[in-house]
Amino acid sequence: MQTVAILGRPNVGKSSIFNRLAGRKIAIVDDTPGVTRDRKEVEAEIGGIPVTLIDTAGLEEAAPETLAGRMTASSDAALRQADLVLFVIDCRTGLTAADRAFANWLRRADVPVLLLANKAEGRLGIQNAMEAYELGLGDPIPVSAEHGDGFGTLHDEVRDHLQKEPRGQRGERERPLRLAIVGRPNAGKSTLLNTLLGEERMITGPEPGLTRDAIAVQIRDEVGPIRLVDTAGLRKQARIEKDLEKMSTGASIAALKEAEVVILVIDALLGMEEQDLRIARLAEREGRACVIAFNKWDAVEDRAATRKKLDDVLTFSLAQMKGIMVVPISAANGRGIDRLLPAVREVHDLWNRRIGTGELNRWFEVMKDRHQPPLVEGKRIKLRYATMPKARPPTIAVFGTRAEMLPEDYRRYLVNSFREKFDMPGVPIRLNLRGTDNPYAEGDEE
């Protein structure tokens, strides 16, 4: 079993991240620096891989005989034991001298490092996280331990790094696609799972809320294994009153965040309601690919009008996932089910797709020529170049002078044209902006 160690200076949220990855509250969480003085270890599963997870005392520069010094020694011991380090910074506070010092220390260590920019709630938090590029530890992963944002991406990155390690010890096992079935109560999620399994694995019935826990099963299609999770129905927050309902909703959200693709089941007789849109937006915010299963299609009388109404809602209320795949099905009798998993595989391939730097920048130059970046505070924003540091979801990093000041309409212009040019319907696309000059570009011009 491989070991993952969480390191960072005190009070950046290491223990909160530890608790989330462990799946239960183990470490004491408090705002007082230095609460975690000893290493804590737990066996956990991250990205489908069993690991030993270590939470460490905060890294501090201090004399060895002091408490802070002993905490640092404990972190050093964890580093020597680790197959992968999660280095945590607080992007609300910004980079500190201690962050930079320990980043230098980690760069010298012969251990792969993932850089976590914690407390990155909202768009401003994600933009603040980009400052962490300065540490030279690769692409920062914006997360919020408090809200659970970004943990799906974290699971993906941990899995990808650990599977790069010597494979002889683990063997060449197939990696299952992680798929979650989500939706409002009584939309037909469990019936869909039973149909996919070909057996009555879930209890189904007309009473809403029969499924209380997120339940995982493994199936295979023509491509390979799929780890499929059926979840309790996601209800409106005002209706979550009992502890059991809170736990069920929490399990649903956790399953969505740890999935790669989600199937959003919608009752075609009711149409797409506000709660369905909230679930879809949550999937987009977490960077998950999504397919809509338009259930009970066989009972719809005016199919043309029903489909047009759905398309209108998606166009005007879910523009950030333009082109999302919709598969009309009847989970009860199996009609349309044969097209559902192929759609999941197709959107999963798009979600994993990378565009080469040369091809990306040829598109980028055309977009800039077609529509120049605007003036901001009387100065021209000069966009230099673009890279695609990661997929899962497709992520574009744009560099240039005052790039971080790019207005929202120009950001949408770039994302929409990227989606159209590279044929990526229905998948979330991330755009990260860095106000740093290309060292090979000409000097700045006003």
From TrEMBL:
Q: Which residues of this UniProt protein bind GTP 2?
A: 183-190, 230-234, 295-298
Q: Which UniProt keywords apply?
A: GTP-binding, Nucleotide-binding, Repeat, Ribosome biogenesis
- Pfam families, per the entry: KH_dom-like, MMR_HSR1
In alphabetical order, the GO MF annotations are: GTP binding
Read off the CDD domains from this record: EngA1 (cd01894), EngA2 (cd01895)
Query: What's the domain of life for this entry?
Result: Bacteria
**Binding locations of GTP 1:** 8-15, 55-59, 118-121
Annotated EngA-type G domain ranges read 2-166, 177-352
List, in alphabetical order, the GO biological process terms annotated in this UniProt record.
ribosome biogenesis
Q: Which residues form a coiled coil?
A: none
PANTHER family given in the database record: GTPASE DER
Subunit structure comment from the entry: Associates with the 50S ribosomal subunit.
Family label: Belongs to the TRAFAC class TrmE-Era-EngA-EngB-Septin-like GTPase superfamily. EngA (Der) GTPase family.
Q: What does this protein do?
A: GTPase that plays an essential role in the late steps of ribosome biogenesis.
Listed name of the protein: GTPase Der
